[in-house]
Amino acid sequence: MTAQIGRPVNRVEGVEKVTGSAHYTADTPIPGVRHAVLVQSEVSHGHVAAASLEMAARQAAEAAGVEYVLTSLNCPPLNHIPRDLTWDLPFERRPPLSDLTVQYRGQHMAVVVADTLEHATQAASLMRLEYQSSPAVLTARDASDTYQPDHFVKLTEEKLQDRRGPHDEPDGKIVSALFTTPENAHYSIELSATIAQWDGDHLTVHDSTRWISGERRVLAAYFGIPVEKIRIIAPLVGGAFGSKSFMWMHVALCAVAARAIGAPVKLVLTRDQMFTSTGHRPPTEQTLRLVADDTGRLTSIEHHTTSATSMVAHFCEPAGLSTRFLYQTPRLVVSHTVARTHTPTPCFMRGPGEAPGLFALEVAMDELSYVIGVDPVQLRIANDAHEDQTNDSPWSARHLLDCYRQGDQRFGWNERPTAPRSLRRNGVQVGWGMATATYPGRRMPAGCRVTTANDGHLTFASATHEVGNGVRTVMCQIAADSSGMPLGRVSFASGDSSFPEAPYSGASQTTAAVGSAVYLTAQQWKLRVLTLAAHELHCATTTLDIRDGMIVGPDLTRPGIEVGEILAGFTTDLREQLNFACASTGAPDSGPVSQSFGAHFCEVEVDEEIGRATVTRWVAVMDCGKVINPKLARSQVIGGITFGLGMALLEQVPYHPGTGHPLGEYYVPTHADVPEFDITFIDSADTHLTPMGARGIGEIGVCGVPAAIANAIFHATGRRLRDLPITLEALMTPFDLEEIR
Amino acid sequence: MTDHTITLTINGIERLVETDARSTLLDLLRERLQLTGTKKGCDHGLCGACTVTIDGERVLSCLTLAVSIDGSSILTIEGIADDDRLHPLQRAFLDCDGFQCGYCTSGQISSAHALLHEHARGDLSAASFEPPGGNVVDGPDILSDNEIRERMAGNICRCGAYPNIVDAVASCLRDGRP
Fold it and tell me: What is the mean pLDDT of residues A54-64?
């Protein structure tokens, strides 16, 4: 029998995706659906004048095709959602349309519902609102309302304020610098879409969400109805990258509107609304201070981060978390400060914490390598953390040193001249840079149900989400191996709250979490089939096995019996025993620490005359446990690196610093921006975390990428750039070459 | 008063279609004709997800008013396969893993499909003039990866499947210009 785990299987939903028949939320055909369009605040702080709101709503209501206009004047009161969702997760504390105040630009002010999208759009454009503006705090630097959260989301061990070792900083070689990262947008190509429909007091919501069970809980709280009366359907999700979760306000408003008019309502955000109303990575300011002895051994690390959140929700960009353990150091101080600003609510974005945090840490390490006079790879090897110093635990299946060595070799790093400005080609500067990547190996509890068709085809189902992570494909591979059935005889369904509960599709844990549930369910299914078959075949269960869909065993009179054939002999009652659900636990509480690592090496060409940096070559070696599907895994790591490339060179939500109004566009990488990739996986099983040995791979690709690029640009030009993105202006600003020597 | 009747031939089938004068071809396809394979990613001509072919040329359906193309022939993603037989490009996108979430894929394949036609016709791109320099009179015989990237640069993939998309397109161009 061929093992499916480890094979480069094509995506199981691929044919639908290449033919246009793949089904995303906004594609759902709903007879009689009405179209909703949002009206949003144009000021950052203040009040909307009630009279203008009333008049604007009346005008919109009179426009052609309009059926309903929802504002804070007629919005039925929604309950507050429970504190455990708002105090350490980025849910807005204030229900939508609950008062006349404005806390950020882009806050929803009204929903216009009409028979067609054109009518709703036209009517919404008529709503000119008058505001009494108040002074707005738009940056963390200007904020007076700041606080220091204790830990990251629900993870109490992920301390945002942490220190160990001596109180005073030792003497030594010092690198100390300020790093900034801007507001980044997830920019999934699918716009967030919701279709809400009430049937009596039952609510069905089709939504592009990556957290079905969370959304169900929040809607139940808002409307004061039991979760059992709410069904969430998330067919395919067109990218999320951290957004499309922690239910955004438009979802609730769509449901309010649908209930008010007694008809299904569809609401698709515009691209501009995606920036203000579905989260973003908040800007950070980070101070990084490294102290090392003359040989380059670290004696102290301090990493202090300030990030912005909104006035109505909590989110802390946990940039310093991986600094706590990435390198061995006797002294550590990490702090995080959150500043409340009149800006939209931020949230997780691919590599939350790691993406901006490793930019600071890994650029500082590069600086240290020049201060000490040691190769950047050697500096990292010398400071390798042989255990997790945050809790004195050993690592589980850690191979970071192999990543450095293999990457070094594949890239040809030993040919790198140390001095900046040493390499030149075709009239442009060339530089080589590297950085370490890391991301936690996470796993939360998850459930899975199996349904057995009469012909022996198995359908596994879990309320997880196909966001492009390949979950349907990878789950089929795990299910096939664990059940003994061929890949063609198993299917995996996702995206429906009627399936057993699964965690949000985030934190790079879907393969580990849902995969473990599928693994257990399939294993249990096999045991049940074999127990029933053993009875039928008059032999011991332990002598039987299922391979490639055939029941085999030394005591059988035939070489193998088709599972379908055995099932045909079972009574309906017996067959019913093969339809059941299992749940898997979260990560083990004790034992070694599961953490993924990797090493990035890149080449950048810098044309200093026009301020253009082009990434030309990329080598990444990733240590993410057992790889279930090397084709999909490679794609995901390439995608992560491309995400980081955008963060390094292109991406920032451009706001006017005075008004908070958006200026211009948000640039993301296109075909023209990507380098040649050489991706390698260590592919060593972490069986402490999951029975398949897999850890997640969704986020580690992006981690360390901006630093590797910034370090390569330093090597190419001698410019040490510590503010992202690295723009044309940064590359062209005159600077004194002597300063770098 | 805002409704107009136009004639469109969509994927080979001629039909009379009622449309709001303000409706884009994209909204018409998706909301009135239930041809939801064509995707809305930005609605202002940035991302390429809504790419379709009108009278043989690729266009952004979000920037095309439906009433402005009365009488035209439109090819959408739903019309690219030959019934159940995938077009070689579709097969190549599958085998090369040229997508992840799949939301931009209809536009990528529609663009690539038009690219094949443009290449066969001898169209040039900015990359055709780059060193080493090819045939800038009749168009390049073989499209380099750089040529493919340039000709596909209008289609954004946030999942970052770009290298696999280039591989998929290149595999359909391997034999040179027909």
Answer: 98
Q: Which residues contact A639 (CB under 8 A, 6 or more apart)?
A: A701, B100, B159, B160, B161
* Distance separating alpha carbons of residues A279 and A270, to the nearest angstrom: 14
Contact B90 A470 (CB under 8 A): no
Specify the 3-state DSSP secondary structure of A337: strand
Put simply, the answer to whether A27 touches B36 (Cβ < 8 Å) is yes
CA B76 to mean position of chain CA atoms? 8
Banded model confidence at residue B141, pLDDT cuts 50, 70, 90: confident
ipTM: 0.97
- The CATH code for residues B3-79 is 3.10.20.30
Task: Write down the domain spans for chain B.
Answer: 3-79, 88-171
Inter-chain residue contact A122 with B160, CB threshold 8 Å: no
Please count the CA atoms within 13 angstroms of the CA of A294 that sit on its side-chain side: 0
What mean pLDDT comes out for the span A111-140?
97
Identify the CA nearest to A209 among candidates A550, A467, A542, A509.
A467
For residues A615 and A603, is the Cβ–Cβ distance under 8 A? yes
A496-509, pLDDT tens digit by residue? 999 999 999 999 99
Q: Domains for chain A: give ranges and CATH numbers.
A: 25-135+189-239+244-277 (3.30.365.10), 284-442+590-740 (3.30.365.10), 443-584 (3.30.365.10)
Which one of B26, B38, B101, B156 makes the best mutation probe of the A interface by having the most chain A beta carbons within 10 Å? B101
Contact between A236 and B23 using a beta-carbon 8 Å cutoff = no
User: Among B110, B113, B159, which would you mutate to test the A interface (most chain A Cβ atoms within 10 Å of its Cβ)?
Assistant: B159
Across the interface, whether the CB atoms of A671 and B152 are under 8 A apart is answered: yes
B88 touches chain A (CB under 8 A): no
